[in-house]
């Protein structure tokens, strides 16, 4: 009999209840008890939602982040918060969010409080975890209280609990040694605490523990492979059965290691690595459970249940009791309930499955395997019908788009001339001073702007009224920039709620959910648009706003677009064609916008690729393939313009070393990047590569309300000029200013413009 189980459930709540409860608690508007109570209610509800599973995850709920939970369970608190006298939950939030110490007059002060833990992306997802901090002196002590309390709640509810913990190797691998010491050396200290934890769980009657080791789908060197064996041999004595869970990718060369760990079971991602399952099965000792993740935990499409059964049935024959099935990974990465969606196009809706629907699919598969397909005949037929409708829908298939994509040839991605020939033509046309100043695109999204947009969406403001309100904002930002003396202006992006959603809403082939929220970090959620069909652009999306902005000034106004790779990486994407194919369609659509902007007389066009790096595959061996199509897509978008038109791109992160060749290959005339926090050191990558085009290294951190001084900006730019010839440098902030206030933006940009003048005087 096949066992069905799940690896984790979204914790934020179908209506983002946890988000609102957290934010209210943080603002001091509700009590800790209220928050704790809400947490318990959510757990209770989510376990009820998962009833029908043979094993239900417990311990996957978190008030902020499951990795931070693990740090507390292991007693690995950063030194700066040890010895805190207050409540443990408050201390937990101090690590998660940082805390500024109140100044004597009560106003918050930037210094003196507690720095937040660093946050980084959880593998290749859009979820961010708090990075565990290590040093050579790190020690561990068990605090099982959270898990024990949740187990007790689950027991009271009659839940068949399978506690979930993060495994020791992944915990070490994803953390950071602050003193550059060897993290693996800590394993010896860590293992006894894990052993103690497993004993504690065994004492509670726990039978199975899910121990997540997703680093098994990444490249591991010999030391780490060896450490895996050491660790699990050490934990072998535990009186619970361990299910080592991997997900998000392929085991590849770790397959032998994974198959032979001395544990009772292994979970693998059979969506991402179906080909890997048979080779694994041939290696797997015959006493072990094999859990196959057959329902995609990362995307929102219905599973092809019949196809999965065709594949699974022979495996079920072979494995018998040893076969478990589950979603490929925790359902944390998908929205909760499709039934909440009342406004979603019904045709598109019929193709989708959110977390609850995915659990239903799992149950259908389980029943089919146990009792035969006839027991779930109707469900299978309905599933087949929905998939067939999707395959043939005219909403999905647009022959015109398919023809254009098929006709893409190398010349689409080529500029008329190389940069060296374009640059003089652009400077003759733009007549910019040395060290030209600009900003990254957005200006403060003020309360008025948000109000106007929500009035417009609710029908309280008519389209003409909304348009007038946005024009007013654009005019204001042009006025401010003229007054500041910036050289290249932006319109300010007032009309954009989000840099992807804005374009998705205007492209054919996209749908939007009302409640399709997915946790990004802490209380923050994103609602990725759903790319379901061939992409086309029925009409221009930005030209009117930009042309209006340009009409208000003689200075060059930058056209502002989001690039195809970023739109793709921040959407739920099709599973019926490769990502690269969807990306090329997006590239062609945005290319049309670029050409329309150029036709409208716009001289500079910026195409943001904020999420290009995020899309890198987990394994380095697969990077090249991704970078090739990502860069090609950008080039298709950008490079249809004349030599005189200047293309900018922007990327807001600070790691370029390993992708610098691809960045250069994009061939944007100007790239603006985040650099202020790295003291311009990140320009080393550009210097060593002899990056040939222009660069705008960010001169101040837009995340902080601090106003950068003119001297500091001059110093930073002088450091930049040691690495990049001054005639190829621009002066700009690290990123867009939408989260700042005008009262911060104006003095900061004024100092930036003054700094540029000083620099010009010195050259
Ligand atoms: N143009 C966008 C802005 O200024 C870029 C945002 C980003 O890089 N994340 O807001
Ligand atoms: Zn940015």
From TrEMBL:
<dbReference type="InterPro" id="IPR038071">
    <property type="entry name" value="UROD/MetE-like_sf"/>
</dbReference>
<comment type="pathway">
    <text>Amino-acid biosynthesis; L-methionine biosynthesis via de novo pathway; L-methionine from L-homocysteine (MetE route): step 1/1.</text>
</comment>
<keyword id="KW-0486">Methionine biosynthesis</keyword>
<feature type="binding site">
    <location>
        <position position="608"/>
    </location>
    <ligand>
        <name>L-homocysteine</name>
    </ligand>
</feature>
<keyword id="KW-0862">Zinc</keyword>
<dbReference type="GO" id="GO:0009086">
    <property type="term" value="P:methionine biosynthetic process"/>
</dbReference>
<dbReference type="GO" id="GO:0032259">
    <property type="term" value="P:methylation"/>
</dbReference>
<feature type="binding site">
    <location>
        <position position="652"/>
    </location>
    <ligand>
        <name>Zn(2+) 1</name>
    </ligand>
</feature>
<feature type="binding site">
    <location>
        <position position="665"/>
    </location>
    <ligand>
        <name>Zn(2+) 1</name>
    </ligand>
</feature>
<comment type="function">
    <text>Catalyzes the transfer of a methyl group from 5-methyltetrahydrofolate to homocysteine resulting in methionine formation.</text>
</comment>
<feature type="binding site">
    <location>
        <position position="650"/>
    </location>
    <ligand>
        <name>Zn(2+)</name>
    </ligand>
</feature>
<feature type="binding site">
    <location>
        <position position="614"/>
    </location>
    <ligand>
        <name>5-methyltetrahydropteroyltri-L-glutamate</name>
    </ligand>
</feature>
<feature type="binding site">
    <location>
        <begin position="524"/>
        <end position="525"/>
    </location>
    <ligand>
        <name>5-methyltetrahydropteroyltri-L-glutamate</name>
    </ligand>
</feature>
<feature type="binding site">
    <location>
        <position position="19"/>
    </location>
    <ligand>
        <name>5-methyltetrahydropteroyltri-L-glutamate</name>
    </ligand>
</feature>
<dbReference type="InterPro" id="IPR013215">
    <property type="entry name" value="Cbl-indep_Met_Synth_N"/>
</dbReference>
<feature type="binding site">
    <location>
        <position position="674"/>
    </location>
    <ligand>
        <name>Zn(2+)</name>
    </ligand>
</feature>
<dbReference type="InterPro" id="IPR006276">
    <property type="entry name" value="Cobalamin-indep_Met_synthase"/>
</dbReference>
<dbReference type="GO" id="GO:0008270">
    <property type="term" value="F:zinc ion binding"/>
</dbReference>
<comment type="similarity">
    <text>Belongs to the vitamin-B12 independent methionine synthase family.</text>
</comment>
<feature type="binding site">
    <location>
        <position position="674"/>
    </location>
    <ligand>
        <name>Zn(2+) 1</name>
    </ligand>
</feature>
<feature type="domain" description="Cobalamin-independent methionine synthase MetE N-terminal">
    <location>
        <begin position="5"/>
        <end position="318"/>
    </location>
</feature>
<feature type="binding site">
    <location>
        <position position="121"/>
    </location>
    <ligand>
        <name>5-methyltetrahydropteroyltri-L-glutamate</name>
    </ligand>
</feature>
<keyword id="KW-0808">Transferase</keyword>
<feature type="binding site">
    <location>
        <position position="735"/>
    </location>
    <ligand>
        <name>Zn(2+)</name>
    </ligand>
</feature>
<feature type="binding site">
    <location>
        <position position="650"/>
    </location>
    <ligand>
        <name>Zn(2+) 1</name>
    </ligand>
</feature>
<dbReference type="Pfam" id="PF01717">
    <property type="entry name" value="Meth_synt_2"/>
</dbReference>
<keyword id="KW-0479">Metal-binding</keyword>
<feature type="binding site">
    <location>
        <position position="652"/>
    </location>
    <ligand>
        <name>Zn(2+)</name>
    </ligand>
</feature>
<feature type="domain" description="Cobalamin-independent methionine synthase MetE C-terminal/archaeal">
    <location>
        <begin position="436"/>
        <end position="757"/>
    </location>
</feature>
<feature type="binding site">
    <location>
        <position position="735"/>
    </location>
    <ligand>
        <name>Zn(2+) 1</name>
    </ligand>
</feature>
<keyword id="KW-0028">Amino-acid biosynthesis</keyword>
<keyword id="KW-0489">Methyltransferase</keyword>
<feature type="binding site">
    <location>
        <position position="493"/>
    </location>
    <ligand>
        <name>L-homocysteine</name>
    </ligand>
</feature>
<feature type="binding site">
    <location>
        <begin position="440"/>
        <end position="442"/>
    </location>
    <ligand>
        <name>L-homocysteine</name>
    </ligand>
</feature>
<dbReference type="InterPro" id="IPR002629">
    <property type="entry name" value="Met_Synth_C/arc"/>
</dbReference>
<feature type="binding site">
    <location>
        <position position="126"/>
    </location>
    <ligand>
        <name>5-methyltetrahydropteroyltri-L-glutamate</name>
    </ligand>
</feature>
<feature type="binding site">
    <location>
        <position position="493"/>
    </location>
    <ligand>
        <name>L-methionine</name>
    </ligand>
</feature>
<feature type="binding site">
    <location>
        <begin position="16"/>
        <end position="19"/>
    </location>
    <ligand>
        <name>5-methyltetrahydropteroyltri-L-glutamate</name>
    </ligand>
</feature>
<dbReference type="GO" id="GO:0003871">
    <property type="term" value="F:5-methyltetrahydropteroyltriglutamate-homocysteine S-methyltransferase activity"/>
</dbReference>
<feature type="binding site">
    <location>
        <begin position="440"/>
        <end position="442"/>
    </location>
    <ligand>
        <name>L-methionine</name>
    </ligand>
</feature>
<dbReference type="Pfam" id="PF08267">
    <property type="entry name" value="Meth_synt_1"/>
</dbReference>
<feature type="binding site">
    <location>
        <position position="608"/>
    </location>
    <ligand>
        <name>L-methionine</name>
    </ligand>
</feature>
